[in-house]
Amino acid sequence: MPQFPSTSAPPALDFQQVRKTYPGQPQPALHDLTLRVPRGSRMGIIGRSGAGKSTLVRLISGLDHADSGVLFARGEAVHGPQLRAHQARTGLVFQQFNLLAQRTALQNVALPLELRGVPRARRDALAREQLRLVGLEALADRYPAQLSGGQKQRVGIARALVTGPDLLLADEATSALDPETSASILSLLLDIQQERDLTLVIVTHQMEVVRAVTTHVAVLDRGTIVETGETGTVLRAPQHPVTRALLGAHRPQVPLADHETLRHLTLPDLNPDTLAALGRSGARLVQAQAHPQGVDVWLAVSAHLPLHLPGSAPLAVGA
Ligand SMILES: Nc1ncnc2c1ncn2[C@@H]1O[C@H](COP(=O)(O)OP(=O)(O)O)[C@@H](O)[C@H]1O
Ligand SMILES: [Mg+2]
């Protein structure tokens, strides 16, 4: 095979065997984490609560550092002297907006520039321009308490963009919003990503968010990436039980008795022993779907009886 010199730009982010353990915690929050985020992609990081998503964002944003392994951003390791330059090119949008209550929308957006010593007139002009882009120019002098959740998040996005980043991180940016506002914020992020040719990393526990905006997805479970690929491919043919559990959260519409609740499990298989054990636990099989790595099942489970399964534990337990 002829060797061609590589002319392709390095990925926006490249995690190599990254590990992070919080002090006093027995288990690492992230371990063996290996992930590439292509430049200009919209990467969804999805996982259940506690999977390590926010830890991943903290590492990317430089708020925290790995115990071992390396994180490269734009081809350079993120630590030491490169850290400040990396942070200047990385915007962060938070779930709870994190606006300063005693500052107006304009002053909140201008804050990152103020911290970098940009003169007042210049930073106000830049902040006003960002507010215009998120549709809030008219509300520049309002305080956070005078803004709706969606408007606060628009201020948060304007603040994240004011330094001109090429990488934008959104950690559960729409989780505190109602579905309609959430959709408008997602569409704003999508427009901004395309207009400015940014790399967008969007962290969420909601598969709808992945479906709506991302080009790529990585599924995080217990601190490690269990599946990653182009969004269309992963959604069409999810390989890992956790991915399927996240997708399978579409609850079947079936009538339930008063004492029953629906549970979603991925089992290694559905053999006669399993079926007999389900029967003894008072569980009804509502829906089952086989795939190469097991069987996704929805059960109507009696609240009065504990659910016992024979042999191996479920591969994944969903909602
Ligand atoms: N500051 C911290 N100190 C100790 N443990 C933490 C801290 N932050 C997160 N953790 C733990 O690390 C794991 C991953 O947390 P997090 O990254 O917040 O997950 P997610 O955002 O996916 O819900 C969890 O077990 C959590 O309890
Ligand atoms: Mg989180």
Describe this structure in words.
With 319 residues, this protein is α/β, with parallel strands linked by helices. It has a domain at 256-319. The chain is built from ten helices and 14 strands. It has helices at residues 53-60, 82-88, 105-115, 120-133, 149-161, 179-196, 207-213, 231-236, 241-247, 272-280; strands spanning 13-20, 30-37, 42-46, 68-73, 76-77, 90-93, 167-171, 199-204, 216-221, 224-230, 260-267, 284-291, 294-302, 316-317. The strands form three sheets. The chain has a six-stranded mixed sheet with strand order 6-7-8-3-9-10, sandwiched between helices. The chain has a four-stranded antiparallel sheet with strand order 2-1-4-5, with helices on one face. The relative contact order is 0.13. The model has no long low-confidence stretch (mean pLDDT 88).
Sheet with most strands: strand arrangement: 6-7-8-3-9-10
What is the structural class?
alpha/beta
Distinct ligands: adenosine-5'-diphosphate, magnesium ion
Question: How large is the radius of gyration?
Answer: 23 Å
Mean of the pLDDT scores?
88
Strand content: 25-35%
What order do the helices and strands follow?
A: EEEHEEHEHHHEHEHEEHHEHEEE
- According to DSSP, the number of beta strands is 14
Describe the main β-sheet briefly: 6 strands, mixed
What is the overall number of helices?
A: 10
